[in-house]
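Hey Z.,

So I finally got round to the cytidine-5'-triphosphate thing we talked about over coffee. Here's the setup:
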Amino acid sequence: MLKGKRILLIVAGGIAAFKVHELIRLLRKQDAAVRCVLTETGARFVTPLSLQALTEDKVYSDMFSLTDESEMGHIQLSRDADLLVVAPATANILARMAGGLADDLASTVLLATDKPVLVAPAMNVRMWSHAATQANVEILTKRGIEFVGPNDGAMACNEFGPGRMSEPAEIVAAIESLLTVERPLAGRRALVTSGPTREAIDPVRYISNHSSGKQGHAIAAALAQLGAEVTLVSGPVAVPDPAGVTVVKIESADQMLAACLAAGAVDVAVCAAAVADWKMATPATAKIKKKAGAAPPALELTPNPDILATLSKAGPKRPRLVVGFAAETENLIANAVDKRTRKGCDWIVANDVSPATGTFGGDRNTVHLISAEGVQHWPTLSKERVAMQLAGAIALHLTRPRPAEAAE
Ligand code: CTP
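And the result:
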């Protein structure tokens, strides 16, 4: 499966470095080409000679070596690879990656690369659990760096817990899944709206709803996994930003519409946000005070712009595919079919959000995909699976020749 793939293996300093010999052997067995960058501390655990013998290639370690830089600059090392693998990844190299340091060849290559990076951490259990390391892992994960391990187990320091580097076979499996994932949406742009909006009543109060953003965020992540360049316009939510996605955070429907229009031309727009239908005609600029004996204030509301309908309007800038959601509590299919026509979008993902279904804020969803061709009833799935299935359907639609092209 890895035949012809080019792996740039960055070996940092840790006792687990002895496992890279087996890792290289397994990769070579599959006819992958492996080239090594060895850090200064890595060279205390494995020798350049052993790596050179196993890879049948030169081992790179010196940033300032005239021959290394003239033969193969740090940019070229990354250009010539399909994937960078850091194994073992020490707490130190994770911190340097998170901080964007470039003070040796390994860190410079990692900063200069635009290729996928897989990291196999290996360190003492307390170093792994330390808040600083965990914060670095979070930063790197958000940037789209992939992790394999660490595993639980007995360690060289006579302690037990998470910190052991994954076994070479596990690292190979992670490499295979990264390099064989199909990216049918590569080169396509996607826009996703997610979460609720907040409409200010006064500086301390607002109108909003129960949307958690889980489904919209999962859709953004799934589209990015299939290779799309994704802009996610999100209202206030507690779920983390998906990796590898540009996130624009907004509060009100007006801001959400402006951010969607600012995202520019896209191939597909998915409006999963629960946009507040109304806003205050004139939000109070100071906190509305209670007055003894006076009636509660009457809130004068005015409609918000309809983002889905705006994006669905015909014209040269219309995305090729516009997908809306229909959050209904009764007559689900009939209301959703009607909503598709009313809003002018291509597909509607209909879901029942009655309290009994637990859809709002829950982890599972039962949806029905409504298009011009009819209604597909999907089984109850996790929101991640719904997102993957929807992203798959979008990829199929966008990669299908348009009727005019098909006729040519
Ligand atoms: N939507 C939008 N802008 C709005 C309102 C809704 O983009 N101002 C989008 C939602 O993101 C969703 C779809 O329209 O994709 C339907 O949202 P929903 O709340 O189900 O419908 P409403 O338009 O609010 O209609 P109704 O209140 O009649 O159910």
